[in-house]
Amino acid sequence: MSPSPAEPGQAGAAPDAPRTRRPDLDPRGPRFGAGITAVLLLVVVFLSLTGASVAALSLLAVLAALFAWGAFAGAGRHPWGLLFKRVVRPRLNPPRELENPAPPTFAQGVGLLVTLVGVLLGLVGLAPAVGIAAAAAFVAAFLNAVFDYCLGCQLYLLLVRSGLLGRDQATIR
């Protein structure tokens, strides 16, 4: 699926038209990133369970920052996405199809929300919240990495279909 030439931000579009979409993604990239994230979240859960609460909180804060990067810059510009694009993808066959970057980018925002709640609760002294938030985020990352089931993407589609987010026909297929 490639954008039409007259889409805003593309050749042939009016120069003052706003850009509405980021470039499409290889769907294997977010899965690759979810695998790395799942491993790091599992480390946070382990650290939290073993009493290394400062280390657990610190690593969860780093992961929250990475989720923020993906949510605001886009899933394709996330550090794991860039690593996939530069190191892994050249060694693979081309993808059968590309995907809209909006659902994975929204999923990064959901990950940010979950991890940020854990970080904030950890900072106010609720150390168990760090492990609980990491465990919740781990479940979502694991499902994405292993089963190609993105909970945040499904939430995005549900919100679009319900009319709570902007309706983009390319997203709803």
From TrEMBL:
Region of interest: Disordered: 1-28
Bias (Basic and acidic residues): 18-28
TM stretches of this protein: 29-49, 55-76, 106-126, 132-159
Domain DUF4395: 26-161
Keywords carried by this UniProt record: Membrane, Transmembrane, Transmembrane helix
UniProt name for this protein: DUF4395 family protein
Natural source organism: Cryobacterium fucosi
Lineage of origin: Bacteria, Bacillati, Actinomycetota, Actinomycetes, Micrococcales
